[in-house]
Design goal:
Layout lengths: L4 H27 L14 H14 L4 H27 L1 E2 L9 E2 L3 E2 H28 L2 H29 L5 H11 L3 H17 L4 E2 L16 H27 L15 H14 L7 H27 L1 E2 L9 E2 L3 E2 H26 L4 H33 L7 H9 L2 H7 L4 E2 L3
Antiparallel strand pairs: 1-4, 2-3, 5-8, 6-7
């Protein structure tokens, strides 16, 4: 089933609201009083909304036990990533499953993941259809207006909450944060908003654990695992991934084949993002055992590759890999053998390669390093944008759409079918 943007927005808000009810009722039963469990002030738990939309997008084609397994994996990865992002940016832990069996660092556990998978299965199988029928009962114009109003309110709420949370995450006393906020925003209304949100979040998450903020070495470029380090790891991972796959195809298939994801340069975006995200999420576990890193890498790598496959097919109408001929595959998008490969890669990267690469990056002088970092960001953004337009235009050409506007003519001239076939030799269209 193909969903429209408004339908996705509707599912997001309804599932966010249902998630808020679930969290609030659960907290009220445990603590014998009402608390707003949402991160934002409106009655929405956005983590549920985003999870519902992601699972709908990436698991919609699955059925039966595969639908449950896909929902289980996406929901688990989403909860695990969300917990780490909250920890990284706010230096707090809002939930802890450490007292449950089969948990990973307290952020996810097998019993809770099984519950989330079951809830997601029910929503995709039956709930989404019911919610969409309710949405279409609303007159079209009224429904669209309601969606935009809710979106605007939520955006303002999120923006205000992020300002508050940024104040909470600093290593300063709460009242010093208030004073700084009042210096920057002098109105009494903003002071009241700050006090209200700060108190509400404390009440909603009294079990939240304040975590230590890592010290930064300002004299060392890209120290730790911050923005500059991640950008450099992305570009290095994209380059090494392209080279690795090219050599692998030569050894296994006996042919030299381009494995690039973009039209300019030997860069595999899938590998680059994998290296960047894996480092960001696994950085705190770098001293864990090889078995631990292998298990996490296998799980995250398989989920990541599946998501990338669905994303490229939905956005560009193209399939860049197909594992249908390999045993133990899921829709041809992933297979067990390559999931194990992601696990081995995670161990090799965090234990052997990353320490050396990180040390080399940190030897770059501070000022040139920052300048080059932003050059890389701009170049890769332009590279991915042009590559996306080239692929979209390729699909249009296949469907007989003429080049009526400037960008279409440029894509036809610079990136025709012959050139794209050399860059993406395994690319297959999903159009009938």
């Amino acid at each position: 089933m193909i969903y429209t943007g408004y339908e996705f927005l509707w599912l997001f808000f309804v599932c966010s609201f249902l998630g808020w009810i679930l969290e609030t009722v659960t907290a009220a039963i445990k603590r014998k009083k009402f608390v707003n469990r949402g991160l934002v002030n409106t009655p929405f738990c956005v983590l549920y909304g985003f999870s519902a939309v992601f699972i709908t997008i990436f698991c919609n084609e699955l059925n039966g036990v595969w639908l449950y397994l896909g929902s289980f994996i996406v929901a688990t990865v989403f909860e695990w990533a969300a917990g780490h992002l909250i920890e990284k940016f706010y230096h707090e832990r809002w939930w802890d499953y450490s007292n449950m069996k089969l948990n990973i660092d307290g952020y996810i556990s097998l019993p809770m993941s099984a519950i989330w998978g079951a809830l997601a299965f029910v929503m995709v199988k039956w709930g989404n259809g019911l919610l969409l029928r309710l949405f279409h009962v609303i007159p079209s114009i009224a429904g669209h207006i309601i969606m935009w109003v809710l979106f605007a309110l939520l955006a303002l709420d999120v923006f205000a909450t992020l300002i508050i949370m940024s104040g909470r995450s600093k290593k300063i006393d709460r009242w010093e944060a208030v004073d700084q906020m009042l210096t920057q925003y002098t109105s009494k209304l903003e002071h009241k908003i700050y006090s209200y949100v700060d108190v509400r979040i404390q009440k909603a998450y009294p079990e939240a654990k304040k975590l230590a903020i890592p010290e930064e070495k300002s004299t060392v470029f890209a120290y730790g695992c911050g923005f500059h380090k991640i950008v450099w790891l992305f570009i290095i991972g994209a380059f090494l991934g392209d080279i690795t796959e090219t050599i692998y195809c030569r050894i296994v298939g006996g042919v030299w084949m381009s494995r690039s994801s973009v039209v300019w340069g030997p860069f595999s975006i899938v590998w680059g993002l994998a290296i960047a995200f894996a480092t960001l999420l696994l950085y705190k576990y770098r001293d864990k055992s090889d078995r631990y890193l292998f298990a996490v890498g296998t799980f995250l790598g398989g989920a990541y590759e599946y998501v990338c496959s669905v994303f490229t097919e939905l956005v560009f109408g193209k399939v860049f890999w197909d594992y249908s001929d390999i045993p133990f595959n899921l829709g041809g998008r992933i297979n067990l053998l390559y999931c194990f490969f992601w696990g081995f890669a995670a161990v090799a990267w965090m234990k052997l390669v990353y320490p050396k690469v990180s040390a080399l990056i940190e030897k770059i002088p501070m000022k040139p390093g920052k300048i080059i970092t932003w050059i890389i960001v701009v170049f890769m953004c332009c590279n991915m944008a042009v590559s996306g337009l080239a692929l979209i235009r390729s699909t249009e050409r296949a469907n007989g759409v003429p080049a009526d506007v400037g960008w279409q003519k440029i894509m036809d001239e610079r990136f025709g079918d012959a050139r794209l076939e050399k860059i993406y030799p395994n690319m297959m269209s999903t159009e009938p």
